[in-house]
Design a protein that fits this description.
- The protein is mainly alpha-helical.
- About 3% of the residues have low confidence.
Length: 1774
Amino acid sequence: MSSLRDQLAQVAQNNATVALDRKRRQKLHSASLVYNPKTAATQDYEYIYDTALESFHTLVSLDLRFKVFTNSLFSASSVTIDRNVQTKDQIRDLDNAVNAYLMLISPKWHLTPALHATEWLIRRFQIHIHNAEMLLLSTLNQYQTPVFKRILNIVKLPPLFNPFTNFVRNDKNPTDLTLIKLFNDMDFLKLYSNYLSKIIKQKVTYTNQLLFTTCCFINVIAFNANDEDKLNKLVPLILEISAKLLASDSSDCQMAAHTMLAVLATALPLNKSIIIAATETILANLKEDDARKKALVTISKLFQTLKGVGNVDQLPVKIYKLVDNSFPFEYLLQFLSNENKYSSDKFFTAYIRSVIRYDHDKLSQIVKILRKIKLEKYEVRFIITDLIHLSEVLEDKSQLIDVFEYFISINEGLVLKCLQALNLTGEVFEIRLTTSLFSVKNSAEQSGEDIIKVLDDAKASTANGSAVPFKDFMTKNSEFISTKAESMLLVKDEKFVKLLSLFVEAVSKGYQPGLFLSSFFTTLESRITFVLRIIVSPGSPVALRLISLTQLSKFINGIDEQTDLFSLVPILVTALMDISRSVRSNTKKVLQQIAKRPFTAKYFLSNVLYGENLKVPMLSPKDSKFWLTNFLSDYIVESTDISSLVIPSKNDMVYMLFWCNQALHLPLAYSKTIMLKLLTAVPQYAFTYSKVFEQFMATYITERSSWETKCIKNKTNFKDFETAVCAIVAPKEKNSFAIDFLINCLESEYEQLSNIMADRILSLYPTLKFPNQLKIVQSIIDSSVDKELSYDGLETLQSLPLTADIFVSVLKSNTINSEDQTDLTKRRRRRSSTVNKSALQKQDISQIAEAHLKKMTIILETLDKLKVKSNENLLNALFNLLSDLETLDHDGGLPVLYAQETLSSCLLNTISSLKSNNGSMKLPSIRADILVAAIRSSTSPQMQNKLLLVVGALASVSPETILHSVMPIFTFMGAHTIRQDDEFSTLVVERTISTIVPALLKSTEVTNKSDEIEFLLMSFSTAFSHVPKHRRVSLYSTLVRELGPSDVIAPFLFLIAQQYSNCLEKFKIAESKNYIEFFKAFLSKFDILEQLHGFNELFNLVELLDEDSSKNEVAPTRTLFSNGIVNMSKSELFVLKKNDLDFIDKVIGESKSDYYNTSSNLKLRILSTLLDPNIEIEVKNQVRNEFSILLSKTLNAINMTDSLSYDKHSSAGSNDEEAGSESEAEVDQKELKDILFGLLEHVLDLLPIQDFVASILPLLQGNTDESVRHHLTVVTSNKFIEEPMESFETANEILSTLVETTEKASESTQILQVTLNTISSIVTRFGDRLDSHLLVKSMENSCKQLTSKKIELEISSLTVLTTLIQTLGVKTLAFYPKIVPVAISIFKTYQNAKNNLKEQLQLAIVLLFASMIKKIPSFLLSNLQDVFVILFHSDEVADSVRLSVISLIVEHIPLKDVFKTLQKVWTNDVSSSNNSVAVSLFLSMLESAVEAIDKKSATQQSPVFFRLLLNLFEYRSICTFDENSINRIEASVHQIANVYVLKLNDKVFRPLFALVVNWAFNGEGVTNTNMSKEERLMAFYKFYNKTQENLKSIITSYFTYLLEPTNNLLKQFISKETVNVSLRRLVLISLTSSFKYDRDEYWKSTSRFELISESLINQLTNVEDVIGKYLVKAIGSLATNNSGVDEHNKIMSDLMISHMKTSCKTREKFWAVRSMKLIYSKVGDGWLVLLPRLVPIIAELLEDEDEEVEYEVRSGLVKVVESVMGEPFDRYLS
């Protein structure tokens, strides 16, 4: 029975749509899927129904299944149906109809009619409330659409859909994580499973819904991947859902189930029974082809998850039949071919084992599966073991042969191990399967033992089974009995194979071999030839071959002595190559047996052995005997190569002919293979013997198929056979039929034959004569073009050792232009003609031309690959071919680009080979104009590059050949090639330059070489901006290096600077920087002399731009000035010059990038040259000379600047315009001067310091321009900053000059300032290493400048004095009066003034005093107060700097003087300044001094410190800061005072403390009379409280000094004479801490206790609420301190009770109760005896009128008392 809650919930659900009031009805009616609530509220049911009915009819037209709802949900009567008044049955029917409709509408929510139709159900039947679950389930897969969001806004969420709560009436759609949370609920999964069952049953599933379901379940599995328990709970549910989906006829449902099962099995491996059941379910209803593949993949994945024992056992028979019916064998093969990405070995192992167990008809086909799948080793072992067991019972064992051959081919050892595990051997198993299988044999085995084993096994098997009498066996197979005296070597393979199988079967059944042979072969000839064929048959088991040898030996004994058995020897010799040692050993015995017989001319079966009436030439008996005897004596069983024994060196021609004939006529493929291998392996084999095989070679290709069939049937390796056949073609072959055979094999349609012969050619080709070589090469080329070859003709061709003559011959035979290109009279290039074009348009000729192009391509590829040793004829032929390709390109329009590129490579290789062999040579027959024309006409940059390389290579071999084409080539390169951004193009240009330019320079035919060079530079520099940025340095450095750096750097620099100028004028700043970066990197490729020389020559070129120089005839005539410079105006020339100099300046100067790239740092290069001891002195002098020239040219340019003038405008302007023009000229000249000064600075910075000083001293000492001297002085300062200390002598030289400058009265302020700054920099760097006389002189001059009244000079002088004091120390004492007073005066002068240099001045003064403090501290004491004042008031100086100076003061100045000075400074300056920073710095200094002072000094200076301390206490009354700032200052003072007190002993501190008490209470020693007593008391008590916290019980007794005053103060608080809450709080805190830290029973003294207790407790009468808690703590602490003294307890109790009486004030009683509660909570046991007196008081208070008092007593005091007594307090009240 359901609970009451459930019943109520059901009632609420049923009445959810019952609305008794209008507002609720309106709200229910306004819930709409389409309209907003306001619109929906105004609509009636008729309107809604009409709209919905129209949409419903649209749905019916789309899907007729909706028609069923015509008479129910969408009937006309539905308008009047009210769900709330329906019966249960009617409601049930309505719900069923709605649910059916929702399941059917699910895939159509994206359609507008679906929304409008469903709108009716929502508005009329409230399905969003009563059918909410089905509505949500049917739309769940639409969770990311607006429709679902609308549904969430109106639906009443069922409990299981709680994860959607946050998305109700929200703009956001549910997330994927929300769906995972939803599906992670087991109850919801069950609900969804039921829903799936319904839609599957109703057949209303659809793809998107199934895809959504699948994804959700996969996400849930993935979400719980690490929770095995949860996965185990999911398994039954997912299996149930999968079963329902699989039961559906829909392929989509089935594939959804497949996916879920596969994912589940991957996440949680299932046991085998579940997987078998799942497999059965999957296969039970598998009908659609779409689902079949997915089903197989799923089954494979399920099986792949199996682990442990039995995971690859055969399938149950029922499952196997289902698999076989669902997946035909061919389907499985196709699946394995296409789906290699899936691991399915376990399923297919189980399937194969099932085939072995149940379905033997498919045994022969399982090899196809095995070849397509990779199995684990253990799986292979299971299958092999099953097959071995099957071989015992299977009738037709031939079905197993292919399978075992496959397993043996991949792992023969494993098969043998499986046999051994079952007590079987390989030989026995071969007998069982009636075939030869194994190739790996034990070398120690013996034939006798093998035979015994075979016979024993056969007998055992016969005994176990029902033995068939031999007579019956013979009768059954009587059709195969041979009665003719025939050679069994000639019998058809089918018959032989059958006889072989019968022989094996007979042996395996235990029949005697002799009985079988004598019964089935009635003649001796047939018996012997049969066993002979078995011996050399690869398909016969080893045991059978041994038996056959034994039988042959017996048969030989039965032949008469007159018959010569040497005719059997050739076949037996081939048996000596058997893999089995036992076979070889027994064969040797048979040969020995034959050797013992007489040799006669009567050969056994001489005319019928190899064919009817086929007479094979034989050896004479004598030769036969000789050969066999020697052979057996030399043969060893272990031998693997017996070719030298077969063809002995003596009488080798006879034996070669004999064995060649034997090889020719042998009908057995295996024996023929062995014999041919033996013959072709001996060195005697030559073309004379290959004639024997002429007919065989002529017919082989046509008969190849029959030979292949023979090999297959006899298990002979056909590839080995064909290799032996191809080897018939002998080295040094001369026979044309053999060459034809070779060519025919290459051109045959058989891939194996072609490849074998192609490999054979590689070894034969070098031994052939030239005509045959040419014939083979030409045939390969022709066949490669004419037909599709079975081998790689091009690879074969490229593998042959072809010579240049071969290529020349081939090229000549394949040429188009017949005219002689080498004829010197025909210098003009052939032009493409209309005749050629029209001819090549014809189809047949066009095809010929295409074939010709293909041939040429093959030839060129081969030549390019081989790189043969070349000659001039080959080069001529290649040039002719270049002309041919142009013809095909221009006239025929054929795609010759690849051929041209390959030809270019061939030309390069050929020229390189000629150069390495012959060096320089003349090639008059070569046409360079062909190359130039090809370069120009080609549209391919790569082709152009390669041809340029050819030009360069040709120039290195024969310069005259290309000399006349130099300019066109370079013009083309400048316009095209150097613009390509690839490594190859760059390499081409560099190589072309490096080859052609030297030829140009060496040539005697070229005049005006400088013009040519400048034209060349202009061609390349014009294309600079188009050259890829990272290619420029390499390209242009190569060009300049080849042209000659000493002559070319300057013109090239000039051209680049001109482009730099153009960029600046066009405001392309970023691009202009690229030129500077480029040229720095460019110059790094040359040595320093070349760089300096280039700069000097560039100055010469720049000078030509001046106005006067422009009239010079040199400038216009130079090629360098032809690109627009000659036509420039004067103003344009001036701008160009200015920008050129700026370019030089930036190239020479250092930048940030030079820090990381030392190679482009000019300064570093000069230094390394001058300082390197390995460089010769002469070179260093040359560097200095070049630098001198550079410096002189720079200075000359500066001197010439003033004389420059130009007119920007026409002279016909007004005076105003002229004035403006002159102003612009002055600005430009100033800019030019600045550039030149910067250049001068950078030039001077290039040299080492010694050379630098030597260069500038004359300039500084002479009458040089002031601006020049100014810049030189600044450069000097910077120069010395990074110099090592060893340069002090050089520094003395420059310092002397600078000191002299400061002495000159005529010098300007600017010069004096920069000079003083430089002196300071030098002194700072070198210190006392400098000449002391110069330093003193500098001091004197600085003191003079200190009084100059010019702030710039004052700052610089102070800086110099600071460094000098730092350096000289005490030696500067004589200048003290000239420095310190003046500095103090200067500070005061500018202290309140506004000046931009004020900060620098204050900093300079502070640093001056800092250096004095450090170096001469004792002499500064007289002005220490002034120093402190300056330090505290240098507002412009950073606080960190001033704090550092404070540290110096504390460290170097005696602390007693520091304290005294601090006291004076505070009194006289800081206290009255209202400067918070000054106060902060003062306290910082005081703190540092207190921390640094030792105890002895602290004792001595204690009076001074405490006077200062009292002054600091008084600061409160005079400062204007806010209260927080004052409190922070006092907190710092208290902290400093406590640190100081810790360094004093009691003897010293006690009188000082008394002094402070007198100051506080009596006003003794007060300096500020305006300070009130209360302010003093507050300051004192703060100090005392802080000290009490630090010293604790040490100063408890000190309270004696303030006991009476404190008592009086407490009384004043009671009497309200003093009303100061803060002061009262401080007093109470002081008493509390004193009581708390009393360790010497100080307060247990009755006199003190009685004195203080009354005053303290009486504070209850009027204590302020804000400090009441402090009074409670004080009283509690006093009670705790005196808890052991009963008298004191009684006194306190009486006093406390007196404040708790009813007559007392309310707050008085309240705080008294609080105090009593604290007392009892702390010392309750001691006060228990006093409780009776307290009980009446408590009783009265419990009935107090004030609720707060009554509550405090009841909940506070009473509870504490009860806890102390351990019993209820009520009993005392009763």
